[in-house]
Amino acid sequence: MSSYHDKWYTRIFSDPKIVEELLRSFVHEEFIEELDFSSLKKLNTKFVPVSGNSRHADIVYEIKSDGQSAYIYLFLEFQSTVDRFMALRMNRYLLEFYQENQRLNGEKHLNPPFPVLIYNGDTKWNAPTSLRELFYKSSVPKKYIPDFSYFKIAINEIPKRELVKIRNAVSAIFYVENSTPEDIKRNRKELVSLLSSVIKEEGARIVDAIFERMRKTQKIDKKVSVINSVEDLVEVTGMWETAVKRHEKQILEKGIEKGIERGIERGIERGIEKGIEKTQKENALKLIEKGMDNSFIHEITGLSLKEIRALRKEKKKV
Known about the structure:
The protein has about 325 residues and is of the alpha/beta class. The chain folds into three domains: about 1-155, no CATH class; about 160-220, no CATH class; about 235-315, no CATH class. Helix content is about 55%, strand content about 15%. The protein is built from twelve helices and five strands. Strands 1-2-3-4-5 form a five-stranded mixed β-sheet. Helix 7 packs antiparallel against helix 8 (about 205-220), helix 8 (about 205-220) runs antiparallel to helix 9 and helix 10 (about 260-290) packs antiparallel against helix 11. It is elongated, with a radius of gyration of 25 Å. The chain starts with a helix and ends with a helix.
């Protein structure tokens, strides 16, 4: 893979919100509930690669748990082949991180780590997740044999039905990564519905990034309906957010001029309602022009099917 893929994944998982979704949705360990995600902070760390041919990236976060710091260590693996000695590689990187961290801070104890491997290759991941599994059997007592384990997230092992049920940004990313161009064409409505949920929760930015990756990796022609739908989804949401903010600002300024507290509140409420209604209709008309069906327009704009049909009739009269 090119450095584009490395940078894209690194950029996506440099967002604390995405990392929180990753841990809550795909790491089924009890301690996750004890983490204080409001304290999640990405550390500036540079790791030395094993070799020039190594395809991976490392991201380390610091997080509080019961007042004590811990480290979330994400190892993003981009190689298409499975590295049997991944536990050894990850252990080495983590020890280098601790060595450098201890040199800089001089602490007497080390904060505990939670190492996570995110693998996006096609081959099934069958490498040991524990360093101890890599050693030959021996009479040497286990306490003298180094051990290290990592938590594996192999994207190609997660069923699409599960990803659709989760309905957040990380599940959408994994859905796209787990799909061929044919899958995306065939499951257009399912993917658009999933991306619509992401937009409602997190805005258009992350969907725009997913769309960018689809273009780069899937090489799907622009004329394919799913691409047009995603473009409309992002464009319409961007217009929506801009319009609502503009109306909020205008009404707030008018309310401040009057200097009446309740008037401000009522003015904002009426203005936002009118602004949203106007924006809904504008966006619906735009989607009608692009040939979208009523159910899709209803899902994106929130207008009722009756209102959408009325808009279609009005447009035909013009």
